[in-house]
């Protein structure tokens, strides 16, 4: 897996160093495995999810097909069980529709907190003890 960006380390929603989301499939806007916002905070693929059939069907019906491979964008197509960096606004829309997938907080970028409250994310957390 490629490393993260040079410069200040990005943090997760818990205020800790951002952990990798997935290297198989390789995720993140920059395809580093991290839900990184990048040097200027330009990327929005910040919520580390575990895909479910229900969510993938919802996403496709909403116009965001995550199951069809697009090799030109290094996108393999997702199946249930894959971890993936999802656009924060897409996760929020799925939450409002009652279809939001579970999340890995330690791999979810703190930049989402301007859109999604931590308490809401915690209710979907897969990595809290």
Can you describe what's shown?
This protein has three helices and three strands. It is an alpha+beta fold. It has a three-stranded antiparallel beta sheet. The longest helix is centred in the middle third of the chain and has 9 residues. It starts with 44 loop residues before the first strand and ends in a 7-residue tail after the last helix.
What distance separates the N and C termini? 27 Å
Main sheet record = 3 strands, antiparallel
Mean pLDDT: 91
Contiguous low-pLDDT stretches (5 residues minimum) are 1-7
CATH architecture: 2-Layer Sandwich
What would you report as the Rg, rounded to the nearest angstrom?
Answer: 13 Å
Q: Which structural class should the secondary elements be placed in?
A: alpha+beta
Attribute tags:
129 residues; alpha+beta; disordered N terminus
In short:
This protein has helices at residues 53-61, 88-96, 118-122, and strands spanning 45-50, 83-87, 102-103.
Topology (elements, then pairings):
Layout: E1 45-50, H1 53-61, E2 83-87, H2 88-96, E3 102-103, H3 118-122
Antiparallel strand pairs: 1-2, 1-3
């Amino acid at each position: 897996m490629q490393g993260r960006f040079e410069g200040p380390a990005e943090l997760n929603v818990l205020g800790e160093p951002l952990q990798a989301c997935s290297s198989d499939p390789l995720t993140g806007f920059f395809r580093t495995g991290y839900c990184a916002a990048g040097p200027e905070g330009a990327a929005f693929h910040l919520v580390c999810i575990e895909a479910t059939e229900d969510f993938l069907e919802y996403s496709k019906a909403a116009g965001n097909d995550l199951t069809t491979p697009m090799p030109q964008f290094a996108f393999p197509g997702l199946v249930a069980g894959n971890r993936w960096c999802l656009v924060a606004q897409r996760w929020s829309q799925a939450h409002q529709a009652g279809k939001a997938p579970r999340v890995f907080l330690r791999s979810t970028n703190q930049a989402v907190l301007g859109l999604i409250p931590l308490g809401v994310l915690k209710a979907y957390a897969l990595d809290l003890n």
